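Researcher: Next sequence.
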Amino acid sequence: MSNKKFADLVERLIASTQNQSIHWNETSQGNIFQVSFKDYSVQIVCTYDDENTCYYRLRIVNENGEVVDEISTYDLRDYLPSAYSEMEGLFSLARRNALGVDKALDSILDQLDLPF
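Model: Next structure:
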């Protein structure tokens, strides 16, 4: 049952990030981004193997910073067949949101939009 809830969480995090109703933050580790809620935080993590392949995990962290539970794309596959691409997309969205990529692009594009 927990894996289905995690699958629902992934989909809701993607939608909420896309409509900008949540804001992700960068952590001290460049491969982890976090969004905080009332009593818990959610982290999206990218861990690289020896072949430079990223493995994504979603973590639930309590207010003391303890990992309550986490799930990998492999564990999600029964409830979210495209788990790897969904988590990859969520990581990318979280990173862009936390680092302000769209704001940076808008600023640069505005500066390039000079009258001729």
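Model: The chain has one domain: 2-112. Helices lie at 2-18, 73-76, 83-99, 101-112.
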